[in-house]
Give the backbone structure.
Amino acid sequence: MSELSSPQKDQVFTATDVGNVDSVLKELRKIVGETNCTASRHIRYAYSYDLSFVKPKAPDYVVMAETVEQVQGLLRFANKEKIPVVPYTAGTNIGGLTIPERGGILLDLKKMNKIVDIDSEAHVAVIEPGVSHAKLADALYKHKLRFGWPVGPPSASVLACAISHGIGGLNAKYGLNSQEITSMEVVLPTGELVRVGSCAIRHDAWHSCLPMPQLDGLFKGWLGSTGVVTKIGISVHPIPPLLKVFTVSCDNVEDMYSYMLNLSNYEMCDDLTAVSWWLAQVPIPYPFKTKPDDAPEWFSFATTTSWTEKEREARTEIWETVFEEEQKKNTSIKRTVYPEEALKGRTQLPSQVVGSTKNYCKQGGAGISWPGTFTPAKVWAPVYNKWKEILIGHNLSPSVRMSMYRGVHYGMLRAMIPFNKQSAEETENARHAIVECLKVDLDSGGIPYKPPIDFATEINKRANPGYLDLLRRMKKFLDPNDIMNPGKLGI
Amino acid sequence: MDWKIAELKELEDKIWRCTACGTCKIAYDYGPPPTFGEICPAGTEFGFEGMMASKGKIAFARGILSGELPWDDELLEAIYKCTVCAGCQNQCQLDHKPFIPEIIEAMRRKAVEDGVGPMPLHKNLLQSMKNYNNPYQGPRRVRTDWTRPFKKAGKPIKDINKEPAPVLFFVGCTGAFNTAARAVPTATASIFQKLGMDFGILGENEICCGSTAMRVGDSEEFKRVATKNLETFKWAHDERGVKTIVSSCAGCYRAIKKDYSLSSEYDKIMEGIEVIHTADYLNRLYKEGKLKFKGELPWKVTYHDPCHTGRHLNKFIIDHEGKQLWKGAYLDVDQSECLYEQPRDLLKAIPGVEFVEMPRNRANAFCCGGGGGVMTGFGEWATKNASLRVQEGMDTGADRMVSICPFCHFNLNEGSKRIGGQVKVHDLTELIDKVLVGSNDD
Ligand SMILES: Cc1cc2nc3c(=O)[nH]c(=O)nc-3n(C[C@H](O)[C@H](O)[C@H](O)COP(=O)(O)OP(=O)(O)OC[C@H]3O[C@@H](n4cnc5c(N)ncnc54)[C@H](O)[C@@H]3O)c2cc1C
Ligand code: SF4
Ligand code: SF4
């Protein structure tokens, strides 16, 4: 019988540490009930891999918590026994972030799926981790409200996306989804329940993290390594009735950047994104396919929403001015008709069709990974040009996206790379190319988000020692036994 | 007769197309308005990934093929804890989409081949198939018990073994043996008589369509009965003039239309025979103005789509030769054969009926919970599942829930009892029969 690829040797915890495996299961059963925990091989196997190039590894136990008290009980036990705990809601992060490096307990939170409150007057929603984008979209729409839906699977968690600095269709206007978090409830690795933001002061006040010290930062971007977030408040926004998407194309990245910078200054878009020809294809060509000579290399969509016809006209007037200014610079900018399905991907979110992996890796075969980064906009063009060389050199399509975040100075630069996961060689090829791309970006001032360990290692190599030291101390302070998603930060 | 029934290994490349994105886990439509619903009965009950939708089933298939998941009792049970409702298939967008139920059933076939499957209770069912040619351990004679009242009333139902008729009513084992579901063949036959149709049944010589055997992975038993049935159909066509086979059972209908087409002889044998579900048949007549209704049914009615007359009838468009995308690329789905509108049109046509839709409907309908061998293998869970669906029906304010499958009919009724449901469950034929103007009334 082949054993699952659980990394038993460097595991901090082994069954003998706690007597025997059954005693752990017995304890888990006491905490979450018989049917909510298992050590069955097939269930562990189903949690052992994801879409990314990260090598599969299985947890030793899987637990589903249904209440905050159960999460607390579980963490107290795991902390006492020094058993790793990996928080999980849908596992769609594309970075192997829920693949357990050192075995232990995989904590599946999808049953904690209550929408605690939607305050349609104050525009705040309070949700548990298992609330999916699809569920929240349905509920919010009844109040004619929206959120920044990502171009990802509708089944993925709103909370997990937000605490991982996820991005959605309102990022040009409101920034990252993590910037929409108004308050948080968290179970610390030692089992204590804490609240940060206004809900810390009054239990039902979820309106803001400010003006208090911003302790929410202790649980955002930490990849589940500082605690289990059990509730968040988020800002939600009314849906203006009029939608207008402005689309242009350019023959090169420099011209596209010039246009995006110009338009960003007016701060009038919900989303301002450009994609390379390869990403505009549905799906991304795999392996690399040459772009037809007469096709532009870049397409951009600027999504705007307005309350009145007059407002929409005003936005159109501004956009026309920008367009004319860019034309006068003799750039290659052109008005363009953006492919129907790709356009839906910006306006009909979350989406089963557009947001599923169909867009990305239907042709590749089961694998997607990316160098996903927040990068100063002014280096987008040179980084892209280098990425293109690297990716084509690995026979991969340079399927790159650039999006402005809440202003002009930085944004998302990302290549979405499909690969054939059935082939170990092709998976390794993709990993190499992506890590190479990442190094180029890091050396130009960009930082990867939701980073797989390969990326974390590269970040840390370049990090200021004081920063790394502080990070270690914070982690140690919050998680003295290093039980929370250990290994993920590369420290 | 050769049968093209895929082994798990043959599906390996397709299994590798799954990205584990989890889109299959929920029913979701952008809208506007956007609609969200749980779609996987197994996921709803058991929660763990692996139990949840095709993402999980494909994880199991991968592990079985790679040898990382050798058979054990729990794995075996897990692959049978799925109603093969194809709800997950409806959501997935990747190239293996058309093959998802096939992959689930191929795992079960492998379990049977490897001598570990199916589940013990399924084994009883299969033994019954071997002994009695039906899964209910019902003696042959009992198969026609439901026809007695017709005989008593001086309106016997024609036996096709003895007399010719252009229409063969294929009754199915559930309608015949499951007393709670007998209302289905009774109402169907009553309607046909009212319409003055020349139809007959195979009576004691009818044997199981084989659907259940196929769903639980015993392809040998399926092939045995399916071959016999195909031979009977040919005989009925050649010797008794049968041109149409009508079924009131979603399972039989799906099996004869879809599973039987895996036979090398299917096209030849079925030439000149149309297979049609009663709902479709009656809807055609209704459209031609041949159904006349009297009186009123002052009921608030909701409709439950059986998986076998809905999603299971999808036709997938695949780029077999690689002309549009690449070889084997999934291009689109053709739902034109799914019986979504026909039963709804009929319900809306019944005088007095107020029709209300459940949030999860048509391709996104939530399974009654009894399919794929679950009702036999895990009866308690099947009933629990059905109660979720009945509750959804009750939440619409409906007092009646209608379906077109005796299997759903039975299971939903059990579900309703479980929660002391306020909703009464009916087969569509029962409603039509109540208001149809027939020869007797003229
Ligand atoms: C095709 C595709 C497209 C995508 N597009 C986008 C996009 O446009 N924008 C975007 O932001 N993302 C995108 N994603 C990534 C991903 O879908 C989202 O970030 C998603 O919301 C993550 O949710 P999840 O439930 O899958 O999280 P998981 O993968 O389960 O978890 C993500 C991380 O958060 C941690 N975590 C989870 N829950 C908790 C908790 N309660 N407390 C503490 N830590 C926790 C986990 O340990 C892990 O480190 C895409 C993914 C795919 C497959
Ligand atoms: S079956 Fe389809 S939808 Fe489900 S995880 Fe696999 S690729 Fe995604
Ligand atoms: S076929 Fe139905 S029960 Fe089975 S995994 Fe798919 S959705 Fe779940």
